[in-house]
Specification:
five-stranded antiparallel sheet, 518 residues, alpha+beta, single chain
């Protein structure tokens, strides 16, 4: 929740002179349909805000295009033998953007700036949704200007990846304490804040003092806030926007041919890039031994419909059938050799015969965006005698009902908060039963819990993957959920752009992007 932000203080008008200054330069232009209501990184909860604040700020570490953790403000780090102490050595050449609140130019980042930034996340008055990041942190402190120590309560191998989240960006106390930080966002990123006409346009300019040599190449970023997708798409076709991310029904057939490739008529102007996205769509069950939805019925549902057909005809080849377990493609532990959740009508019928099910109506809860998928599954399962009705809920109501264990059978999705398989398996850990965590299934298995604890204590990826495989086997045997598909992102962008990169987080990586001016 984000409170007490005075939006009136961030409203600006753009003069013709402002616009002419950037119009002739290499400016990356994109549209954001979602509302941006803050530029403070401690509130960067969703993708729209992450895209924006990632241009302005840096943390200790970050992820590259291959989802590997790489240095950012921290040039190196070490982890103690007991895996409880993380020691970060900071790059002493990192400076904040210029500000009237600094006593001198080139205000360098020091370790105490991270201590201050982390304190802001934990300050209950700030209501940061990123407070959970420090759940396992015992303490953090600086030993000198270039050394930061973080100590954990217990070993947790995904912790380094969690620190790459935008919540953990470094900010200067002088600006936060002496101004409206939303009006004067000062970070260390490749771009710096310029203007914000709230609800209409947001403009960043190149940071000429960025610590990575010769970067960025772009002169600026311009973000519009057109709510109508068709209008935004028309702007893209007219060359007023450089990017369209995602495929909407209103224009998918305009851009793509029957093979889901870019039409020849557009290849001279645009490029299409497909990237795996760390999101798994699924149907979930509230596990209850007395329920008619027993393990055999759950298994019957799992193999009673064709995921490949669903992807090809209902998803128009966007994404991959979820046949490798719950962890999606794009994650380090994605088990390419693993093969399950196959369509098998005869096996589904055998499971159904061995279940408690006697033809009762089973209600599947969903939202309108996924109605067609649920109707397909409903029809497929009716052919083997499973009677499913569908209830469509508003998104907010649906999320609340799932989180409060009020739905026995529901559609859900899990987008990774950080790039570690633990983030997916945490949904089945008994200590994360709602309302304490995201275990919406009421799943409690002592063997799984033991394996989960082991997985977060190991650092060797090969050893962890062996444990993840065992955890995945338990989830499949218990049929806790029905994985549907692993998502992907389709990006259409101007041929004028080069070195335009992303990763499985669907990150907007612009510091190395280049734009040709015709």
């Amino acid at each position: 929740m984000i409170l007490n932000i005075n939006y009136s203080l961030v409203l600006f008008s753009f003069s013709c002179n402002d616009l002419s200054v950037i119009s002739e330069k290499k400016v990356f232009k994109y549209n954001e349909i979602s509302e941006i209501n803050t530029l403070d990184p401690i509130y960067s909860r969703d993708l729209a805000h992450v895209w924006v604040v990632s241009q302005l700020y840096n943390g200790l570490v970050t992820f590259d295009t291959n989802m590997q953790i790489i240095p950012s403000v921290a040039k190196s780090w070490s982890i103690s033998e007991n895996k409880l102490e993380y020691r970060f050595n900071l790059n002493t050449n990192v400076c904040f953007h210029s500000s009237e609140f600094f006593k001198k130019e080139n205000r360098r980042v020091i370790a105490d700036d991270f201590v201050y930034s982390f304190d802001r996340i934990l300050d209950k008055n700030n209501l940061s949704p990123g407070k959970w990041v420090f759940n396992l942190v015992d303490k953090y402190y600086s030993t000198n200007d270039s050394t930061l120590i973080i100590k954990l309560i217990e070993p947790f191998s995904p912790f380094l990846g969690i620190l790459a989240m935008q919540y953990c960006s470094v900010v200067p106390h002088e600006v936060v304490e002496n101004s409206n930080f939303n009006k004067n966002p000062i970070g260390t990123g490749p771009f710096k804040f310029h203007k914000w006409d709230y609800g209409n346009k947001l403009v960043f300019r190149k940071n000429d003092n960025y610590f990575e040599n010769n970067l960025p190449y772009l002169d600026g970023i311009s973000i519009s806030f057109i709510k109508d997708k068709n209008t935004a798409f028309l702007k893209f076709l007219q060359g007023d926007l450089d990017l369209v991310s995602g495929l909407d029904e209103s224009y998918i057939d305009e851009l793509l041919n029957d093979n889901r490739q870019l039409r020849e008529s557009y290849k001279q102007r645009f490029k299409l890039k497909k990237t795996s996205y760390l999101n798994t769509e699924y149907l979930g069950f509230l596990i209850n031994d007395s329920s008619i939805i027993d393990n055999n019925l759950r298994k019957a549902i799992n193999c009673g419909f064709d995921r490949e057909y669903m992807i090809k005809y209902l998803r128009k080849d966007i994404g991959q059938p979820a046949s490798k377990g719950f962890v999606p493609n794009g994650m380090n532990s994605f088990a390419k050799e693993y093969d399950s959740y196959k369509y098998n009508i005869e096996l589904a019928k055998k499971f159904l015969e061995n279940s408690k099910y006697q033809g009762q109506e089973i209600k599947l809860n969903t939202t309108s965006s996924y109605l067609s998928l649920c109707e397909y599954i409903q029809k497929s399962l009716s052919e083997i005698g499973i009677n499913i009705s569908i209830e469509v809920n508003p998104p907010y109501v649906h999320r609340q009902m799932v989180a409060s264990n009020k739905l026995n059978f529901f559609r859900g999705s899990w987008i990774a908060d950080y790039a570690d398989p633990e983030n997916y398996f945490a949904l089945f850990y008994s200590k994360n039963l709602t309302p304490n965590g995201p275990n919406y299934f009421n799943f409690n298995d002592s063997k799984f819990d033991s394996l989960y604890k082991l997985s977060v204590s190991l650092n060797d990826l090969n050893e962890r993957n062996k444990v993840f495989k065992k955890m995945n086997d338990i989830i499949e045997e218990k049929s806790v959920l029905v994985p549907l598909y692993y998502d992907e992102v389709n990006r259409f962008y101007s041929n004028d752009l080069s070195d335009f990169k992303t990763n499985s987080f669907n990150a907007l990586l612009l510091k190395e992007a280049k734009k040709n001016i015709k």
